Structure formats: C-alpha cells, structure tokens
Amino acid sequence: MSYSISQVADKTGLSAFTLRYYEREGLLPLIKRNSSGRREFSDADLDFIDLITCLKDTGMSLTEIRHFVSLTLQGDSTLETRLNIFKQQQQAVRRQIEQANQHLAKLEYKVRFYTAACEAGTEAAVSGDCELPGQPIIIDNSLRINKAHTSN
C-alpha cells in the first residue's frame, strides 16, 4: 500500500514539513515518487520513520541517525556496526531511565513533603531527607498553624 505525505503525517504525528526535512537531510533516501512527482510512502517507509522517531526520541542526534541511514544503504557489510549503534543507544536509554527514576523518586518525596506542609499550614513543621528514597515525612505538631485561627 502507498500513502501520501499527509496520510503519513496523520499516521506518524510528524508534520509534512518535518517529513520533507527528513528527506532533504538524507534520513529518508528511499521515498518513491509517482509520475507527477508526489511522494509515495510504503509500509516499510512508515516502519523506518517509526525507527527514526524512536532514535530521535531517545536522544540520538540527526547527524547520528543520518550516519545510521547511510550504513543501512551500504547493506549487510555494516550489520555489526549497526548492531553496535543500537547497543550504545540501548545503554544510553537505560541511563536515561535510571536518571528519570531518580528524578521521579525526588518528585514523589516533594509531593509528600508539600502535602504534609499544606496539611500543617507551614513548611517549618515538616522535615525529612528527600535524598533518601522512602524517607518518612515528619510533622512537628507544635509548629502546626491552626488555619481556623489565622484566617480571622
């Protein structure tokens, strides 16, 4: 089946401008054109666009992606090099996930901290070390602000 650039834009979430840009930049070198010069994308092209999006979304630069595409065009003689590219990107994504999990743990602590601070009416009543995952939030009841008395 073949798809127009607008259909591919709808299917991939990329704009037609981005798809044209990718083609100009050598990321989509095998896009066929019909007799009137319009692009005709195949299912294989859609899969390749999905791969490019994946690589880009995981932090690979367009220059690195272009290098990968050029290796793909060279055929089976570059299989090992391409495998190594994917292994390196896989490691990069694992580091990103680890870092994101650390950020998430800190954010979860801060949500608990500020929930307790809102409940206590002051940050001063709340303590705990956000650097330690699962660290309990401690509220000093003597520092609580009674909201009923302060609003008058």
- Number of helices, counting only DSSP H or I runs of 4 residues or more: 6
Low-confidence stretches: none
What would you say the CATH architecture of the domain at 1-74 is? Orthogonal Bundle
What is the name of the CATH class of the domain at 1-74?
Mainly Alpha
H and E order: EHHEEHHHEEH
Strand order of the main beta sheet, please?
A: 1-3-2
* Number of DSSP strand runs: 5
CATH topology of the domain at 1-74: Multidrug-efflux Transporter Regulator, Chain: A, Domain 2
**Biggest sheet statistics:** 3 strands, antiparallel
Q: Estimate percent helicity.
A: 55-70%
Radius of gyration: 26 Å
Shape: elongated
Strand content: 5-15%
Distance between the termini: 72 Å
Helix-strand category: mainly alpha
Mean pLDDT, all residues: 89
Please tell me about this protein's structure.
It comes from Secundilactobacillus pentosiphilus. This is MerR family transcriptional regulator. The protein is mostly helical and about 150 residues long. It has a domain at about 1-75: Multidrug-efflux Transporter Regulator, Chain: A, Domain 2 (Orthogonal Bundle). Helices cover about 60% and strands about 10% of the residues. It has helices at about 5-10, 15-25, 45-55, 60-75, 80-120, 145-150; strands spanning about 1-5, 30-35, 40, 125, 140. The longest helix is centred in the middle third of the chain and has 42 residues, at about 80-120. The radius of gyration is 26 Å and the shape is elongated. The model has no long low-confidence stretch (mean pLDDT about 90).
